[in-house]
Specification:
The structure holds three protein chains of three kinds. By secondary structure, chain A is of the alpha/beta class. Chain A has 17 helices and twelve strands. In chain A, 46% of the residues lie in helices and 14% in strands. Chain B has one domain: MetI-like fold, CATH 1.10.3720.10. The chains are: A alpha/beta, B mainly alpha, C mainly alpha.
């Protein structure tokens, strides 16, 4: 009798152990243990019993994040199970076989709930490889007080931007229009906006190289004109996001192109800002050949690692769905001010109350455009950065630059 | 009469300039580590920290895991040094004291290895370490670090060992001691400055290394301190005061060690040529 | 005769036994991988795409040389390679020149007896002890146009009228900023190595020269420099190679600098191989780097007569 009882006890314990055994997965989230990513991960872990997610910290730099993933997946590492990736990575990681095809878990009805631009960035050859988590779009910040002083309305065309910036800059003795002009990814974002707002594109939806066109040349020439006309100072040649924000926040610029993060109490809307309450945010202006201003899509999406075991993949997908759910996006907006990718969140009363800016963002985000979708984005971007910077600094003519870009992209595709 | 104090003055001036030039950047680093967000970007900058934010030093440990990184660096550097000095001293002993046939060849090979750029071995080592599943372990760094520490250790030690008179070791052999005992009981104590130098140079080399540390370790918990410095920024922002505070913290152990052991270091680098 | 020969054989065997652990490590972790890198350089190997992983023989190398001789038709990565090679070559020569001259000056100063000599010696050890990543960050902050002290000083002293973004404005300013940051760190090491050499020069030589009426300059050129030559050459060979291989300073300070103007070869190689995942081309570049370092070593040892194995100090027999 005793033996039977003991056997039963052991069996019961064994089975309950199996029941308690959680699927453990890892998440390459962010570099800050207090970030929204970490908070949401903790929330997920405490809200259910089957999956435990380990939050792995990593470097702050997007390049380093990318390198770490390339190194791991090159060695077919099953970890991290889930990872947060830049909006420009889906094509690259999908083509390399490093992102799980999420189409089975992501029906069209669900996709329609997201901003169209974000779904476009996550799609490669008809399949969806990531779930958009939060997004970003470039926009134009402008000094309401200065425009009022000189009797100008906010610009909607390039010419207006150039004229107003140059005029006020001269009269006030400050900088006109500051943007991201250093030779780095940010320059590509800014340039894509000018190109798209002039009806041009670099690589079209079918992978054809369309950069050598009048629209693109005109856009690049305009960027150079901003400098030569005095509308923009040549210190933008080394400006990244923070440099531009510093200039604008200290009251030294009339216009700034930047991401929504600048408008927050820790930045320009705070007490350390010289422009608190004195600025507005509008879409970037349109070019002569364009139909409307454009915003480059930024933001991040959640991927699942195909080298993980089936069980881990399933767990990963569940986690990804949680991280991109409506409640998660609401929380993320409240905690970190990130712009949501789900359309419904833009009209959520809690969000609007906490971050009224979301309302301003919606028209910008609904029309945001992705950067060139190509599996070789990193190399293409390098080529773009080099050539765009050469045009901006006056070292090369726009027509020559686009020819060089065409040649380099062809070389990359070989 | 006039001529005598001009050289003195120039000398003193030169000395002052040198000291300031060497110390000032470190002073500036320290000041930056105490500044707040806005003070950091102010122009002209404050030359003294007006409201020192000592809690920056706390933040790097509580929010950013620096303690773990320091531990990783220490374990890796110390292990590399121990192994390097141990097997390096055997090699140096053989090269310094034995009459061997292939000595010039071996010396040449060791010298050549010390000249290789690290990047040359990165790719295959990464593949191999992946297969052996030691990526993200301490061995993933200790092993590659031996590539530069061994040749240097052997080079330093063999030049020290050579200066120890053969008579001493021969006497020990006559007394019946094996070569290993001769090495440890006679040569080591006499070549102590050289051992110290090899120790310090290897330790500092391993502590400061960045290239391998960036490639073979991708798990932040195992990051060494040079790599960990990259964790202190955000996507658009860079918390320079935290980077500065962390830099001060990772430098202090080395500075203390160098200051305490400077006599050995100088003696070692001058390979026993110092007479006073 | 026989006794000596067998003694040598015996010592050789024992010696090899002592050398074995080190040799094993060196072969396994250095020679073998270098061979594998060379093997890999005969391929095109993009770790992301299997369609871009195939044998290409020596074509990576011919591509590299095409980048040198006909850059207009060559692949852009090869043109970038020669750009990096040129930047590294320039950087190495200038940095080593500066650190040698200044290092020698400092060594000469420390070599004299005076109060505070210990302090100067300590001061020179500090930069050497600071990890390169920390010192590079430090210089980044100092060179910055927002909150940087160098801009502040330069403006106050009237050298500039407006703040300059040293690290980003132009390849020239970024390059010289990198040289400065590197020199700060390496001058001490050079000074110590040269100090060692200075201290082996017998004082009697100077005495004799003084008695003969030779001026300080004359003494320097006729005694100090020639006697210093062996130590100088050894210091130079190691410093030159170290500078040529530099990675940290470029990676942290400028990330390659405006328009690749500070992209040292090691950094270029890292970006190509690790960031872009091009292991075939990256391996070819690594082998080229390796060849360059061997050439530099050859130049110093065979042409200039450097002898790293000369025993310093006197053999106490």
């Amino acid at each position: 009798m005793k033996k039977v009882l003991i056997t039963l006890l052991v069996l019961v314990l064994a089975f309950s152990a199996i029941g308690i055994a959680k699927t453990k997965i890892t998440y390459f989230g962010d570099n800050d243990p207090n970030s929204a990513e970490a908070v949401l991960t903790k929330l997920f872990n405490s809200s259910q019993d089957e999956i435990e997610v380990e939050f792995l910290l990593q470097s702050w730099s997007t390049d380093d994040k990318h390198t770490a993933l390339v190194t791991r997946f090159g060695a077919k590492d099953p970890h991290p199970t889930v990872y947060l990736g830049d909006v420009i990575w889906p094509a690259e990681f999908a083509a390399a076989g490093w992102a799980l095809d999420l189409t089975p878990y992501f029906p069209k009805s669900e996709q329609d709930k997201f901003l169209p631009g974000t779904i476009k960035s996550a799609t490669y050859l008809g399949k969806v490889y990531a779930m958009p988590s939060f997004t970003d779009g470039g926009l134009l910040y402008y000094r309401t007080d200065l425009l009022e002083k000189y009797g100008y309305k906010p610009p909607t065309t390039w010419e207006e931007l150039k004229t107003i910036a140059a005029t006020i800059a001269k009269k006030e003795g400050i900088d006109g229009f500051v943007f991201q002009g250093a030779q780095y990814e940010g320059l590509v974002c800014d340039a894509v906006e000018f190109i798209a707002s002039n009806g041009g594109e670099i690589i079209d939806g079918n992978g054809n190289v369309k950069v050598n066109s009048a629209e693109v040349i005109q856009a690049l020439e305009f960027m150079r004109e901003l400098i030569t006309s005095g509308a923009s100072p040549d210190k933008v040649f080394t400006f990244m996001e923070e440099d531009a924000r510093m200039a604008f926040q200290q009251g030294n610029a009339v216009f700034m192109r930047n991401w929504p993060y600048c408008h927050s109490p820790s930045n320009m809307a705070g007490d350390q800002s010289a422009v608190k309450g004195k600025y507005g945010m509008i879409p970037m202006p349109k070019g002569p050949k364009g139909t409307g201003g454009a915003a480059t899509l930024g933001g991040w999406m959640v991927f699942v690692n195909p080298f993980a075991s089936k069980a881990e993949q399933e767990a990963g997908v569940q986690f990804a769905q949680f991280m991109t759910s409506e409640s998660a996006q609401i929380i993320r907006n409240l905690v970190a001010g990130n712009a949501p990718t789900r359309i419904a969140v833009y009209t959520n009363p809690m969000v609007l109350r906490a971050n009224a800016i979301v309302e301003t963002l919606y028209p910008i985000m609904i029309n945001a455009v992705p950067r060139p979708v190509t599996p070789f984005y990193a190399q293409v971007s390098n080529a773009l950065q080099e050539e765009f910077h050469a045009v901006l600094t006056g070292k090369k003519a726009a027509a020559d630059a686009v020819k060089a870009i065409e040649r380099k992209i062809k070389e990359i595709y070989e | 009469m006039r001529k005598r104090w001009i050289p003195r003055l120039l000398l003193t001036l030169a000395v002052l300039v040198i000291i300031v030039f060497m110390f000032f950047p470190f002073y500036w680093l320290f000041i930056m580590s105490l500044k707040g967000d806005l003070d950091l970007y102010k122009m002209p900058p404050d030359w003294i920290a007006k409201n020192p934010r000592w809690d920056n030093y706390k933040t790097i440990f509580t929010d950013h895991n620096l303690g773990q990184n320091l531990q990783n660096s220490f374990i890796i550097a110390f292990s590399t040094t121990l192994i390097s000095v141990l097997i390096g001293s055997w090699a140096a002993y053989a090269l310094a004291k034995f009459r061997m046939r292939f000595k010039s060849l071996i010396l040449g090979v060791i010298l050549a290895v010390s000249m290789f750029p690290g990047i040359v071995v990165v790719s295959p080592l990464y593949m191999q370490f992946s297969d052996l599943k030691i990526i993200n372990t301490y061995w993933a760094l200790i092993l590659p670090y031996l590539t530069f520490s061994l040749p240097m250790t052997i080079w330093i030690l063999q030049s020290f060992f050579k200066q120890i008179p053969d008579a001493l070791t021969e006497a020990a052999v006559i007394d019946g001691a094996g070569p290993m005992r001769a090495l440890f009981q006679i040569i080591f104590p006499l070549a102590a400055p050289g051992i110290f130098t090899a120790f310090i140079l290897t330790f500092i080399g391993a502590w400061n290394e960045l290239l391998f540390a960036s490639i073979f370790i991708t798990d932040y918990r195992k990051f060494t301190v040079p790599r960990a410095l990259t964790l202190f920024s955000g996507q658009y922002t860079s918390s320079w005061q935290l980077i500065a505070a962390a830099s001060v913290v990772i430098t202090l152990p080395l500075i203390v060690m160098v200051l305490l052991l400077q006599k050995w270091i100088v003696a070692g680098l001058t390979a026993g040529g110092v007479k006073d | 005769m026989k006794k000596r020969y067998s003694r040598e054989k015996q010592e050789t065997r024992m010696g090899l036994f002592f050398l074995l652990p080190s040799l094993i490590v060196i072969v396994l972790i250095t020679f073998l991988p270098i061979g594998q890198t060379f093997f890999r350089s005969l391929f095109r190997w993009d770790i992301k795409f299997e369609s871009r992983q195939y044998f290409t023989g020596l074509s990576n190398y011919t591509a590299i040389f095409q980048g040198l001789f006909s850059p207009d038709e060559a692949l852009s990565w090869t043109v970038s390679f020669w750009n990096s090679a040129w930047v590294t070559f320039l950087f190495t020569i200038i940095a080593v020149l500066i650190e040698t001259v200044v290092g020698l000056l400092i060594a000469l100063i420390i070599n004299r007896e005076f109060r505070g000599r210990g302090l100067v010696r300590t001061a020179t050890l500090i930069p050497w002890a600071i990890p390169t990543v920390a010192s590079a960050q430090m210089w980044r902050m100092m060179f910055s146009s927002q909150g940087g002290v160098i801009n502040d000083l330069a403006k106050r002293l009237g050298f500039i009228t407006e703040y300059v973004n040293f690290l980003g404005d132009s390849t020239t300013t970024a390059f010289w900023s990198m040289v400065t940051a590197d020199a700060w760190k390496t001058i001490p090491f050079m000074a110590l190595l040269l100090l060692a050499g200075l201290q082996t020069i017998p004082l009697q030589l100077y005495e004799a020269a003084r008695v003969d009426g030779a001026s300080k300059w004359r003494q320097f050129f006729s005694i100090t420099l020639p006697m210093l030559k062996p130590s100088l050459l050894v210091a130079l060979i190691f410093r030159t190679l170290d500078t040529f291989k530099a990675f940290d300073i470029a990676q942290v300070l400028t990330g390659g600098g405006p328009a690749s103007g500070t992209e040292l070869l090691s950094l270029f190689n890292y970006k190509l191989m690790i960031q872009q995942g091009q292991h075939g081309r990256g391996s070819a570049v690594a082998i080229m780097l390796f060849i360059f370092t061997m050439l530099i070593a050859f130049f110093f040892i065979k042409v200039l007569g450097a002898d790293p194995y000369a025993s310093k100090g006197k053999e106490l027999k």
